[in-house]
Design brief:
Blueprint: E1 12-16, E2 26-33, H1 39-51, H2 58-79, E3 87-94, E4 98-104, H3 130-138, E5 141-144, E6 150-156
Antiparallel strand pairs: 1-2, 2-3, 3-4, 4-6, 5-6
Length: 158
């Protein structure tokens, strides 16, 4: 029996200083293919870049990983509908006291204001809502663009 053929994940990571921006130490940019099996490695790469050179508690690391995982899953599955021709774009601005994460897909977007996000027992079988619920409880601030295809999350380094 032969092992299943796996393809190496190809991520494009750029880590650059932000010119003219005094409070941003670094900006990390990442393009992720619209494949669910890329999420784990993308989260690992982003976490490593976001927390390098900074002291971070295990609580901050956990919250960062959960928020990134759910935002990427939503972008890949719901936004891009796992279309191999589409990408998810992640931009992280690393500040001394916080991490700002932008996750943008190439989908049509959604109305985030009307999205269900409860964990009521009656809605546990619902195919949506739990990711946004987790994101909102893991980070300190969440915003969406007007189209609904980009989420901005702020996590303080405390």
């Amino acid at each position: 029996m032969t092992a299943p053929h796996t393809h190496p994940l190809r991520l494009c990571v750029r880590r650059t200083p932000v010119p003219g921006e005094m409070r941003v130490v670094q900006r990390v940019a990442l393009k992720v293919p619209s494949k669910v099996d890329c999420i784990e490695e993308a989260v690992a790469v982003l976490t490593r870049h976001c927390l390098s050179g900074a002291e971070a508690s295990s609580r901050v690391q956990f919250r960062l990983q959960v928020a990134l995982s759910d935002a990427l899953a939503n972008a890949i599955v719901r936004g891009n509908r796992e279309d191999a021709d589409k990408q998810v774009y992640v931009q992280v601005d690393l500040h001394p006291d916080a991490v700002n994460i932008h996750v943008t897909d190439e989908g049509d977007g959604f109305d985030h204001a009307s999205a269900a996000e409860t964990l009521d027992p009656g809605s546990l079988d619902s195919p949506s809502g739990r990711g946004l619920f987790l994101i909102r409880h893991m980070v300190d601030d969440v915003h969406f663009n007007t189209q609904g295809n980009s989420i901005c999350m702020t996590l303080r380094r405390r």
